Automatic annotation (TrEMBL):
Belongs to the phD/YefM antitoxin family. It comes from Candidatus Gottesmanbacteria bacterium RBG_16_38_7b. Coiled coil: none annotated. Antitoxin component of a type II toxin-antitoxin (TA) system. InterPro entries: Antitoxin_Phd/YefM, YefM-like_sf. It comes from the Bacteria. It holds the Pfam family PhdYeFM_antitox. The lineage of its organism: Bacteria, Candidatus Gottesmaniibacteriota. This is Antitoxin.
Length: 100
C-alpha cells in the first residue's frame, strides 16, 4: 500500500478498539485517524514516519529561531558580536531555563 503521508484511514474509537491489531498493521503504511463522536481525537502513525516528522519540525523550528530579528538585535551586544546566531540562541535558552 503506497500512500501519501496526508492520506489517513478514518476510524471511530469503537471500531479501533474492536480491531486494534488490524489498525496497527494499517498504521505501518498509512496514518490511522481515530475519531470520537465524529471529532478527530488521535492519530496512529508508523514510528519511522513520526521520527521523520519530528526531525523536520525541529529543523524548521531551529531555522525560524535563527532567522528571527530578535536574535539579530542581540548581535549588537558587545559580548555577542563575534558569536553566531546559534551560539546566541543557545545562551538565551540557557538563561531562560536556568536563570542567570
Amino acid at each position: 500500500m503506497n500512500s501519501n503521508i496526508f492520506d489517513a484511514k478514518k476510524v471511530s474509537t469503537r471500531e479501533f478498539q474492536h480491531n486494534l491489531s488490524d489498525y496497527l498493521e494499517i498504521a505501518k503504511n498509512m496514518p490511522v485517524l481515530i475519531t470520537r463522536y465524529g471529532k478527530e481525537e488521535a492519530v496512529l502513525i508508523n514510528p519511522k514516519h513520526y521520527k521523520i516528522a519530528k526531525l523536520k519540525y525541529k529543523k524548521t523550528n531551529l531555522q525560524n529561531i535563527m532567522s528571527s530579528p530578535f536574535i539579530g538585535l542581540h548581535k549588537n551586544k558587545k559580548e555577542w558580536q563575534k558569536k553566531s546566531s546559534t551560539q546566541i540562541a543557545n545562551e538565551l535558552r540557557i538563561k531562560a531555563w536556568y536563570g542567570g
